[in-house]
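2.7 Reproducibility. Because tokenized structures are sensitive to small changes in the input, we list the exact sequence used for ABC transporter permease, including any N-terminal residues retained from the expression construct. No trimming or masking was applied before prediction.
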Amino acid sequence: MLGIFKAREAGLVAIILIICIAMSFASPYFLTWQNFRAMLLSFSIEGIVVVGMTILLIVGGIDLSVGSVVCLAMVIGGKLFLMGLDPWTASMIAVLVCGFIGFLMGQCVTRIGLHFFIVSLAFMVIARGLSLLITKGTPQSLFSLPPSFKFIGQGDIAGMPFVIILFFALVVFFDLLLRHSTIFRKVYYTGSNEKAALFSGIKTKRIKIFCSTLCGLLSGVAGVVYMARFGAATPQFGIGMELSVIAAAVIGGASLNGGSGTIFGAVLGAALLSLVTSSLILLDVPVYWQDIIRGLILLVAVSADHLLNRRKRGASAKS
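Resulting structure tokens (single pass, no recycling of outputs):
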């Protein structure tokens, strides 16, 4: 299984390198720090959500509400700040609310027996409705946020945006946990074969709730960073984000059937999507084609995942 992960990741690295080489000849602006900085910024905050989604996919779940939950974090944090609360406390409350949403989704799945798809679809609508209710459908201006708070979304350290540093720190942290931590190994076992994991003594329901809560918390963190970056909270923000996040995770090797995937692979998937988008812009491809091409990339990735799983099941049946 580890060999498959490495092969998928190596293949993504090769594809990214090929595109970079081709684009270096196609556009004189591609191999510039400004372009690479823009690409990194374009997926760094969303990449925080990708980390949570990848872990949830590994355990066998999925979350369609992440875009709405990110927006809700922005709205709650912004509203509490405008009401007089300091931005750090307001942001902490917003993140905890998002984590509680993930916890509730996990409870619905494990206690009632609903599927993650249906539950997260319902909470996607609920979270979006709450954002519209709190703001009455109008954007909140947060330009009065203190510079110390804005730094997490707009600041630089030695010329490197803090957002990118934060993203890679979270990637390294959770990638190491997934590879070496006992509790995160249980995530793989639960996603691979829940019944076998249950019989071996793993509390699979708790693992699912934990992963769902973690995905909500990371979505909340991303929402806070977006709030600091843009200095605003828009109730329509994040529409369609779940598709990009799921696409990045699946392209990176996370299976929709659970039991496989790595954080590093998901980051490569996000990088590939960002690279494709940047390349299309530099090549003056109409913006309307970008979603079509990204959708086709997702379709190819899901098809490849399905074929790999079918081949694996066939090999297991023969043995």
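The longest helix spans residues 288-318.
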